[in-house]
Design goal:
Elements: H1 7-20, H2 33-42, H3 48-61, H4 65-80, H5 86-104, H6 112-116, H7 123-132, H8 143-152, H9 160-170, H10 176-189
């Protein structure tokens, strides 16, 4: 685990990320808050590309919890059976859709606690929805951010909650809205787990990682 980067270095890191891509976007397709919740819940242990392929047809017929309940679990499975753990995910999507209809009038709630109370929705999923839909600077820490944060010192921590807190506590507020998107994309395409692409890295001169590649 690298030492926490100082304020001035963090400003330079995120200034470079912002200069390269001012408005980074999540890669899961959605049309409203509900489909975003479903897409993120389906993305656990699956690729965004695979989820997008499955939900293209699904969201065309079920873009509200009411329509999802009408489709039913078996109908949902027909759309998502190419995604890992599809049976359990289908059960959770139907359950969370029922809760949204019965307890929230068919609307997606906008608090982390309420979102986390939904089946199949954990802290990361809740933070993604809060950030992408309501533009709240929540930090959704995944394996990419955990790796990048600890490897570079941008946001080190022994677990995902500690890494989330490190972002919130240390990254300057003007970068908070997009911080997790920049870090996810950096970890997904540049600072990969094996043989990181240090030659193409925007922040290689600021990174203390000792095992840099050529």
């Amino acid at each position: 685990m690298a030492r926490q980067m100082d304020y001035h270095t963090l400003r330079e890191v995120f200034s470079r990320f912002r200069a390269a891509e001012a408005e980074p976007k999540g890669e899961l397709n959605h049309v409203n808050a509900y489909t975003l919740v479903v897409a993120v819940a389906l993305s656990a242990q699956a690729t965004d590309a695979g989820v997008n392929k499955a939900t293209a047809g699904l969201f065309a017929v079920a873009d509200t919890p009411e329509k999802m309940l009408a489709l039913g679990e078996e109908g949902l499975i027909d759309h998502i059976k190419t995604i890992g753990l599809f049976r359990n995910k289908a059960k959770n999507v139907i359950k969370l859709s029922r809760i949204l209809v019965d307890q929230y009038g068919g609307e997606v709630p906008c608090s982390r606690a309420a979102l986390e109370s939904l089946p199949g929705v954990g802290r990361k999923t809740a933070n993604v929805v809060l950030n992408m839909w309501w533009h709240y600077p929540a930090q959704a820490v995944d394996t990419h951010i955990f790796r990048v944060g600890n490897r570079t010192g941008i946001c080190p921590g022994k677990d995902v909650v500690a890494v989330e807190r490190a972002i919130e506590d240390n990254v300057p507020v003007d970068f908070q809205q997009h911080a997790h998107h920049w870090l996810i994309l950096h970890g997904r395409y540049i600072c990969v787990a094996r043989k990181p692409k240090c030659k193409a890295c925007l922040i290689k001169d600021l990174c203390p990682f000792e095992e840099k590649t050529a």
